[in-house]
Sequence to fold (308 residues):
Amino acid sequence: MKVAELIELQKRHHGPRRLRRSLGDGYLYAKNPVFRRIRDAALAAGFRFTLDDPGSYFAFPLISLHTMLSTRRIPFRNNFAPLCELERARPRFFRLADLTQNRPMPNYLLHESAHAISFGELFGKRSDVETELRRPDRLVHVMLSESYAMTTEYLAACGVGDPIHNWLFSISSYRHRTQKKKAIGELIDELGFEAVAWSLFGAFLYANFLVDRIGRRELDRVLAFSALTSRQRIAPARKDKLRAALSEVTKMSPEFRLDTSRIFLTMFGHSRDIRRVLSEDPFALAERDPKLAGRTDRLVRILTGIAC
Fold:
């Protein structure tokens, strides 16, 4: 594909609720159901998208999350204009293949929108962001929000259907791999989209609590917590298949996971000893808030497109 064709594709897919100056935004909104549902939910929750940079987000996104949530403004770069400038410099010369090693800077709007939605649902829509993030009893809520963003990106990545979709998604998401995609698809057919989406959500929560592998005990805790799975009778062989898939999907660099958690959590008052901070079973913490099960179920239904 030529860059000129990519520019025309961008223009052709522009429309309501899409950002013309974010490369691939309209195409992903039209072609990727999870991307579209998250965009619609973020707008419905009162968030808007801005070319401004509150909180120096582009310099250090990890420490700017609370600013984004407080201002209800999600920053993005105008990464479409440089592509137009490249095309203007030499019309119909450049191809998409020329951008393999030198690509436009990404916009992680899917991930940040998932954070926006989950904060409002998990903490309460009128909560003061910094106050809530500093509360020790909200630790599991914080990690659930990150787990939701990870679940969102994985499921959206599984919906990528062609090379141009793949390229545009790759500059719009942290997630570039879909381990166990076939197994997850089979499990969706067998158990239902809601059940598998919740299982991914719960498994990512364990991963964010530094659990390296989803064992039988962890899977049972995940399945028992949500009404989306607790009422199902899942055969042992199918449970094993689900557990194996979840363990593979949620694999992350231990060093990255530990360091990221340390920076973010210590910023809001937690001890530097992050292994100790995250040593308790997250579902034991979640059970202390009787509203969390229903709230996480509603977040899953946003992903699956089933009305709450």
